[in-house]
Amino acid sequence: MAFTSPSSGRTPSVRLGAGAPTLADVVAIARHDAFVDIDKEALDGVAETRRLIEALADDTEPHYGISTGFGALATKFISTDRRAQLQQSLVRSHAAGSGPEVEREVVRALMTLRLSTLLTGRTGVRPVVAETYAAVLNAGITPVVHEYGSLGCSGDLAPLAHCALVLMGEGEARTADGRLVDGGEALAEAGITPVVLAEKEGLALINGTDGMLGHLALALADLDRLLSTADIAAAMSVEALLGTDAVFAADLQALRPQLGQAASAANFRTLLHDSPLIASHKGPECTRVQDAYSLRCAPQVHGAARDTIEHARLIAGRELASAVDNPVVTLDGRVESNGNFHGAPVAYVLDFLAIAVADVASMSERRTDRLLDPNRSHGLPPFLADEVGVDSGLMIAQYTAAGITSELKRLAVPASVDSIPSSAMQEDHVSMGWSAARKLRKAVDALAQVLAIEIMSAARGIDLRAPLLPGKATGAVVRLIRDDVSGPGTDRFLAPEIAAVAAAVRSGAVLDAAGPLL
């Protein structure tokens, strides 16, 4: 779950409230500490909506979330003098997470998305709540959120409640330099005044799909990079295994007009262009009719994963444009209960992506195994070892890839098909979208490791084909790897080498070395 990209310094500020944020906006704030700038007109809209809530607060008729209890206690009327306590009690009681701390970038992503919803003017909070939320983000304060606690319905209640608790000056938080302190101490150090919650505000701070959507935004950024990196790894294996590039021809791919497949095949053509290794066996003396599926069908599998990512991006874009709260203030001023907090749309695509990730990794592991097997590697030494028998070469690196791939298949089991009723059967069907998000995060990091092992193995196989050389793009990747990982030779400590290549995969260094790809 440690998949992050190193920040390249503070990015330009991101304005929230002037329309729906983009996925890039969320990643910039969450991962690269971009400064949050609130749109002035959005704050004016927040103030206007707040006046409607305050009018309802004085009404003798009960209104859910304003003058009533919550969930199964929605029929209980709360008197005016107890409503501030109602909102504070809601946040405190719902901050019931357990387990390890969630990663800083994930917390910042979910906070960014909750702030974006507050600025739609559909939640009924006061402007000061949104302004304080932005101040916490800009100060680099990260509320401590725990891995377990959300069922992905009524929103990501526990994770968001832990964030709201810090807004109140309570709970626990990490400062910008990573120190663990009380929420009040974190705010005081940053010169931020804690918020005393008024009617509706506690509910508005915890009722959204922001946790699972934040995970999705970060995963999509990572997977865009990893799918192109998977093309690189496969192209290197094609070279090392003396495969053919003929199957990647544009006219063959056009016979099946799948968009993702076309993009991956185009990458293969770019990566293998003018490769001496490919050219070395194109003559009539080559007796092989066709390559194994893990080589020949790579664009089809990688392409299907790309199409899955595009579907997930479509769903994410719709969710970014949403105002998820319950009750919600409609455009004509009504305050209405609704079910938009249900996480099913996001949960499904999180699970779908985990399936795609597992399949891409599974194919990568099969190519790694092929590189090490003398019966299938077309002349490479067993396990790419230096002195066969004395040396084991990359034998156990493949074990590692196989173990990770097996774990990925378990992570591909959908979370969204499960539901455990809660709140005395008032919330009798939940999405488990947060669970889908957490396992996808693990899967994304695991895919990077599997691809790293294939790249390391293929690079050694390419070196063992000398004096034949790889193509320009793949050759650049081999040279990059050689900065941290030595070429073929006697056995050595492999774990640091795998870690170094995995870091180059995660950071995008491998992708950058290969040059422009789709």
Automatic annotation (TrEMBL):
It is an enzyme of class 4 (lyase). Pathway: Amino-acid degradation; L-histidine degradation into L-glutamate; N-formimidoyl-L-glutamate from L-histidine: step 1/3. It is found in: Cytoplasm. It catalyses: L-histidine = trans-urocanate + NH4(+). SUPFAM superfamilies: L-aspartase-like. It holds the Pfam family Lyase_aromatic. Keywords: Histidine metabolism, Lyase. Gene3D superfamilies: Fumarase/aspartase (Central domain) (1.20.200.10), Fumarase/aspartase (N-terminal domain) (1.10.275.10). Its main location: cytoplasm. Its EC number is 4.3.1.3. It comes from the Bacteria. Belongs to the PAL/histidase family. NCBIfam families: hutH, PRK09367.1. This is Histidine ammonia-lyase. It comes from Actinoplanes ianthinogenes.
